[in-house]
Design a protein that fits this description.
248 residues, 8-stranded parallel beta barrel, 10 helices, 38% helix, 16% strand, binds 1,3-dihydroxyacetonephosphate, Triosephosphate_isomerase, Triosephosphate isomerase, Aldolase_TIM, cytoplasm, TIM_sf
């Protein structure tokens, strides 16, 4: 496996107003010049431009983009639009969008392809529900989801994957380390199967209830290349210790 810098990304979801630029600045002041870790924040789209201005060394990303370049899609934003606003990457396929907006694996693959086309990065999210975990088939389900959500592409440098068990998001529950390791190993095998050597360089992040108290343990699990952090990324006091917990 190609060794990469850790990648710690905050997903602010539907949180944040202009007043919260102070939080970004506090994070950028403390961690923006940390050359050992890549740090990103995905604010709501309304804040991408302002955050990009104040980002320091922090990468600013979007939380979603449309698969098409333009057209009659009320309320949507294309990859080139979020890029123009200042985003260098976007999350795609978050379980909240798969559930709330009914996004399919094919939709997610098209969105990831649009980001690649626009010269941007993508963090492609996959993960099982509690029912799927309890069925004993989580690995087959999640690797299948990844295989179906990957766009046709031969390079991997623009892509990251986030394994986010749906039942671990916002619940304070986290899989045991062995289960995270087993899932990441299976996702790695899917990536190398599909992308060849490039698949070895794709960072696989873990997401779901990462906090300052569990970050050291989670980030030390084999082939966990970083974290996608929700609630704990909303405040510098809780996000900075997670960045500091990244292996270096
Ligand atoms: O969904 C997540 C990040 O995308 C995880 O959210 P929490 O860290 O709040 O559990």
């Amino acid at each position: 496996m190609t060794q990469h810098k850790s990648y710690i990304v905050g997903n602010w979801k539907m949180n944040g107003t202009q007043a919260d630029i102070a939080i970004l600045k506090a994070i950028a002041d403390a961690a923006g010049s940390d050359s050992a870790v890549d740090v990103g924040i995905c604010p709501p789209s309304t804040l991408i431009a302002a955050f990009a201005q104040a980002a320091g060394g922090i990468g600013i990303g979007a939380q979603d983009c449309h698969a098409k370049a333009s057209g009659a899609h009320t309320g949507c934003l294309s990859a080139t639009m979020i890029k123009e606003a200042g985003a260098s990457f976007s999350i795609v396929g978050h379980s909240e969008r798969r559930a709330d907006q009914g996004e399919s694996d094919a939709d997610v693959a098209a969105k990831a392809g649009a980001l690649h086309e626009a010269g941007m990065g993508a963090i492609l999210c996959v993960g099982e529900t509690l029912e799927e975990r309890d069925s004993g088939n989580a690995i087959a389900i999640v690797t299948g989801q990844l295989a179906a959500s990957l766009p046709a592409s031969t390079s991997g440098d623009w892509l990251s994957v986030a394994y986010e068990p749906v039942w671990a998001i916002g619940t304070g529950r986290v899989p045991v380390a062995d289960d995270i390791a087993a899932m990441h190993a299976a996702l790695r095998a899917t990536l190398t199967d599909r992308l060849g050597a490039a698949g070895a360089g794709v960072r696989i992040l873990y997401g779901g209830s990462v906090n300052p108290g569990n970050a050291v343990e989670i980030l030390a699990i084999p082939d966990v290349g970083g974290a996608l952090v929700g609630g704990a990324s909303l405040k510098a006091e809780t996000f900075l210790p997670i960045i500091q917990a990244a292996p270096r």
